[in-house]
Design brief:
Length: 120
């Protein structure tokens, strides 16, 4: 795993049953831009989140808070790239379009969620 630095994007997005947090809901554990109040003791859902950046599978300059999107591939759907768009303008950016093009060339299916998406 790689250090997340100032990125806290997944705290906006991921489902954390341990904190009764659904997709795209605010986390009760989050404190503004300082991130998690208990990072060391954060729930398993957070520790095991399949963020491709944190797994060192993306270029360092494309950290999710810079890119405007989090890319994930879950173990139970290895051919599906899930893109959580945290910035509305992200679809206009070349880096994301290039990344998606690479995954599609490798026959990945792509699922996109945005801030309008609630619970699954
Ligand atoms: S989105 Fe990825 S890089 Fe950003 S805080 Fe979450 S795990 Fe770390
Ligand atoms: S528990 Fe902490 S790491 Fe997990 S989503 Fe909430 S603020 Fe983020």
């Amino acid at each position: 795993m790689i250090e997340c630095g100032k990125c806290t994007e997944c705290c906006k997005v991921l489902k954390v049953p341990e904190r009764k947090k659904g997709l795209w809901e605010d986390c009760p554990g989050r404190i503004d831009k300082k991130g998690c109040f208990d990072y060391i003791g954060r729930p398993r859902s957070c520790r095991e989140y399949a963020c491709l950046y944190a797994m060192k599978k993306m270029p360092t300059e494309l950290r999710p808070d810079n890119l405007g999107a989090i890319l994930t591939i879950f173990a139970h759907t290895p051919d599906l790239l899930v893109v959580h768009a945290t910035k509305p303008w992200v679809w206009t950016t070349l880096p994301l379009r290039q990344l998606l093009g690479q995954f599609r060339k490798e026959n990945f299916r792509v699922k996109i969620t945005t801030t309008g998406t609630r619970k699954t």
